[in-house]
Every structure is written in structure tokens, then in C-alpha cells.
Automatic annotation (TrEMBL):
Name of the protein: Serine protease
GO terms, biological process: protein processing; regulation of fatty acid beta-oxidation
Pfam families attached to this UniProt entry: Trypsin_2
SUPFAM superfamilies according to UniProt: Trypsin-like serine proteases
Record PANTHER family: PEROXISOMAL LEADER PEPTIDE-PROCESSING PROTEASE, SERINE PROTEASE-RELATED
Cellular component per GO, a single term: peroxisome
InterPro entries: Peptidase_S1_PA, TYSND1/DEG15
GO molecular function: serine-type endopeptidase activity
Transmembrane regions: none
């Protein structure tokens, strides 16, 4: 049986006027009985450049150790060899409405412009690499590692050993997956490995970015799709699956979570006809929880607005005048939707309520479920793993001394549309919070310290703890407690206002 080895590569495409770059993988197929016999070797990458055959291609290979046949190399030298196109395949990929795919959409628009799978060859490539196996198929929630050669036009030495970790959050139609890892320049064609192992799962296809700046995802083409496109033979320990010819729609596959059926999208049209969406949780029987800012376009004018709840049974509930929306605390961004319409209740009875309320601590592994970044009818919630970065506890009301958790910050990736989604413990799938928002971070401008741009950091998320939700529900909604009894610092906390005093204990010599 053939044995496979690999090395990451950097690729440059240049002519008299332009120079571009990508990442890639050098695959070396050796005889299983005699590792000195090379059956085949080639470089694979994903090309976004129109008319790539008009460019000179050069390749730099990142090897775990120098070849025995090569002379000792200077570590400060980066060696590039000539490459040529051996084979290419156009790839059909239909973008979602409101999204661009990069790098291809950075080039002038052409009706024939397509991403291509390139199979390259070069006489200067290494004869050995790291042992690798091939994955059968990725699954949602898989932990993955990306290896690539970003910014290789900026500095081809410093970034030559780049790797980052993340999770598979969704699956597109056959052979395409979504990950929550942030894309960086020249990463297309980069290597996708299963978790922290040497199991090849696919290559980085490109960066799917929302036009309004709300967020982005990396698209991965899996190794089985690549095998099928190129008809690669002698694959060890894998069973290639049949390709589907239907590449016209993108759907998120079923999330392997006990709680996913209790996470419901809200489709909202305001009184002016503007449409938006968000997420909600079936918290208790006939009661949904979400964010105030999600439901407000409808709640501000329920007579002219529309709010629909898309159920996993493919049924739709449309809120009526009999249903009620309660926003107990202004500025806390928490809303309760009470389904009181008898017909709506009958439909809602088929949807399970959230299972259990979890205990949690800083550093715990958690995951989020939400309808973030984009929404299509029939899709399932996006799944993103992370950790609890911070918990802030606070006394919720005047006259008591015990504290409850008032704010959670987590590294789970959330996007526009994720608001109102759920945060769950990794080990027992219990609800611990409601997704509220993510942070806007400052992006500095070179040579201008007084100005900056803002960008959403999707992996820095603010969560309303279940402790606060339970307090509001039982004390304020069921117990009719007045908001005047609230500790005002709870509202300051959620407006990120300071309610402390900095005290200098002792001056320090510098």
C-alpha cells in the first residue's frame, strides 16, 4: 500500500505587472514496501487569480528537515523553485446573497471567473516530508488545525511556520465546510488537519465575508472532494464518496447537540418593511428568550410589523396580538416572548424546551448555538466552541448580600444574527447564558495615532448569564418585583460603565 508524506508550500504568481501569492501542500506518494521509490508527487492549491496560466509560478517548500542530498542551507535564505501547472479543475461554488468570496472577488468582475484547484509540479521540491493519513470526512464541531504561509509577499521567512486552531461550524453542499478561524492574506490553499494530528482533511478554499462588515468565515474544500475532482488513485485508508452534482445551495447540516431543536430563528419585518433576523431559545413552556435589540424592530410597532418563528418541524409561528413581549429591565438587552395565542401554543408544543441549567467556572470549555452571519430556510444553528474567559459577579438588588454571575465573556465565535442564541457547557450540554453581542475593537491606522477604524471581534463575546435570566424571570416576571429594587451597578455593568475607584497603593520606580 502506498504511503503519503507532505510539506507546506508557499506559492507566488508573477508577471511584469502583478505579483500574487497563496499557500499549498506538496504531496509525496511513496511505495509502501520501498520508501525510496516515489510513485508520484505534486503540489495542490486553490487559485483565485484570473488567467493564471499567464503568470510565472515559483514555489518555496517548508520541510521538517533538510534533504540529505542538499548542501547545508543558510537559515536566512528562502529558496524558490520554478513550478508549472500540471492540471486544473474549475470549481463551482455559489455564494450566499450579501457575501463576497475572497481573494477572487478582489479581482475585476468577469462572467467566467471561477476558483480553480491547481495541481502543480516542480523539479526543486523535496523528496521527503511528514507522514500523513487522509480523512474520510469532516464533521461539525471537529477541532482542526490550519497550516499555511500567510503574508508571504510581505515576509517569506517570518511567517513560514504559521498554524492556527479552530472548529468546523457548518457544512455547505457536498464537500465544503465552514470554520470560525479568521482568514489572513495568502492563506487560500492552506492545509487543514484534523485536530492536532497529521490527518489531512482538506484545503482552505477562501474567505466568505459579509459585505456589511458583520463577520466572515473560512470555507474549506474537503480532501474527498479534491480526490474526486482530480481522480487521484492509490489513496491509503480512505473510501472516496460519490460526488453530488447539486452545488446550487448552501445548507448547514444537523448539529450534533441535544439542544439544537430548542434554538429557534426569529424572522422579523418592521413597520417600514425592513427585514432582519436573530435567534431565540425555548426557555420554558411557551416562553422564548432573546435580546431586546433582536425583537425591538417588531415590538416597537406590533400592528404593522411581523415576527415569525421558524421551527425545526418546518412549521412557522407568526406572533399575533394575543402573544406578549416583556422587556423587564431597560438596557439589560433581555426580552421574553410569551406565546399566548392558543393556535401558536399548539404548534409550539412540538418543540422541546431547553434541557437543564448548568454550573460553570472560568476556563470551562463551552459552545454556542445560533443563527449567525447568514440565514436560509431549513438550516440548523451554527456551532462554535470556546472557553469562558471571564465571569463578573454582582449583587443583583438592594438589600441582599449574596452575589450572582452578572456577565460572562467567552471566546466562542458569534456573528450578526447570533444574538439571542445559547451558550452551553461542553461536557453536559446545559444552558449557561444568552448570547448578547461581540466586541468592536479598534484597528489602528498607520502614521495616525489619533484615528482608528472599528472591527467586530467575533471571538470576544458578551453573554447574559443564566443566573441573571433566572433572577429576572422568577423575581420580576413571576414575582412582579419592581425595577426600583435593582442594583444600578448591574445596568452600569452591561453598559461597560465604571463603578469602581482606582487606588494607588504605592508608587513604583520605573
Amino acid at each position: 500500500m502506498a504511503k503519503w508524506e507532505y510539506n507546506p508550500v508557499a506559492i507566488r504568481y508573477q508577471n511584469k505587472h502583478h505579483i500574487y501569492a497563496s499557500s499549498g501542500i506538496h504531496l509525496i506518494i511513496k511505495d509502501g514496501d520501498n520508501k525510496e521509490v516515489i510513485i508520484d508527487d505534486f503540489v495542490l492549491t486553490l487559485n483565485h487569480i484570473p488567467n493564471v496560466s499567464n503568470y510565472q509560478i515559483i514555489i518555496n517548500e517548508i520541510t521538517p528537515k533538510k534533504d540529505i542530498d542538499n548542501e547545508e542551507e543558510d537559515d536566512e535564505n528562502v529558496m524558490w523553485g520554478m513550478g508549472r501547472i500540471r492540471e486544473f479543475k474549475d470549481i463551482e461554488f455559489n455564494k450566499l446573497q450579501g457575501f463576497d468570496l475572497f481573494p477572487i472577488d478582489s479581482f475585476p468582475r468577469e462572467s467566467t471567473k471561477k476558483v480553480q484547484l491547481l495541481k502543480l509540479t516542480s523539479m526543486s521540491l523535496s523528496k521527503s516530508g511528514q507522514m500523513i493519513n487522509l480523512d474520510n470526512e469532516l464533521e461539525i464541531s471537529d477541532r482542526i488545525k490550519l497550516k499555511g504561509y500567510p503574508f508571504n509577499l510581505t515576509n517569506s521567512l517570518i511567517f513560514s511556520n504559521y498554524q492556527t486552531f479552530g472548529n468546523i461550524v457548518g457544512k455547505c453542499s457536498t464537500g465544503f465546510y465552514l470554520t470560525d478561524i479568521r482568514y489572513v492574506e495568502n492563506l487560500n490553499g492552506g492545509i487543514v488537519l484534523k485536530n492536532n494530528s497529521e490527518v489531512l482533511s482538506g484545503l482552505i478554499f477562501g474567505n466568505l465575508r459579509k459585505r456589511n462588515g458583520d463577520g466572515d468565515l473560512i470555507v474549506i474544500i474537503d480532501i474527498q472532494e479534491i480526490i474526486s475532482l482530480l481522480n487521484i488513485e492509490k489513496i491509503p485508508d480512505v473510501r472516496p464518496r460519490e460526488r453530488s452534482s447539486d452545488m446550487t445551495s448552501m445548507k448547514i447540516t444537523k448539529v450534533d447537540s441535544k439542544q439544537s431543536r430548542s434554538i429557534l430563528p426569529l424572522l422579523i419585518t418592521d413597520s417600514q418593511g425592513n427585514s432582519t433576523w436573530g435567534t431565540s431559545i425555548h426557555y420554558t413552556r411557551n416562553i422564548l428568550i432573546t435580546n431586546q435589540h433582536v425583537i425591538e424592530p417588531y415590538s416597537s410597532n406590533t400592528k404593522k410589523g411581523i415576527c415569525q418563528i421558524q421551527l425545526p418541524t418546518n412549521q412557522i409561528i407568526q406572533l399575533s396580538s394575543k402573544d406578549e413581549i416583556i422587556i423587564p429591565i431597560k438596557n439589560l438587552d433581555l426580552a421574553f416572548i410569551l406565546i399566548k395565542d392558543l393556535q401558536n401554543q399548539k404548534i409550539m408544543n412540538s418543540i422541546p424546551i431547553i434541557k437543564g441549567i448548568g454550573k460553570y467556572n472560568q476556563g470551562d470549555k463551552i459552545y454556542s448555538l445560533s443563527y449567525g452571519l447568514f440565514y436560509q430556510s431549513g438550516m440548523n444553528p451554527l456551532y462554535s466552541q470556546g472557553e469562558i474567559n471571564c465571569i463578573y459577579s454582582i449583587i443583583p438588588q438592594i438589600g441582599i448580600k449574596s452575589k450572582i454571575n452578572g456577565l460572562i465573556i467567552t471566546s466562542c465565535n458569534v456573528w450578526n444574527g447570533s444574538s439571542g442564541g445559547g451558550l452551553f457547557t461542553q461536557n453536559d450540554d446545559l444552558l449557561i447564558g444568552l448570547i448578547c453581542s461581540n466586541a468592536n475593537v479598534r484597528i489602528p491606522i498607520v502614521d495616525n495615532i489619533n484615528e482608528f477604524k472599528l472591527e467586530k471581534n467575533t471571538s470576544f463575546s458578551f453573554i447574559i448569564p443564566i443566573d441573571i435570566i433566572e433572577y429576572v424571570y422568577y423575581c420580576m416576571i413571576l414575582g412582579h418585583q419592581d425595577v426600583s429594587q435593582l442594583n444600578e451597578n448591574l445596568i452600569k455593568l452591561w453598559n461597560l460603565q465604571s463603578f469602581h475607584q482606582d487606588i494607588l497603593i504605592q508608587s513604583t520606580k520605573l
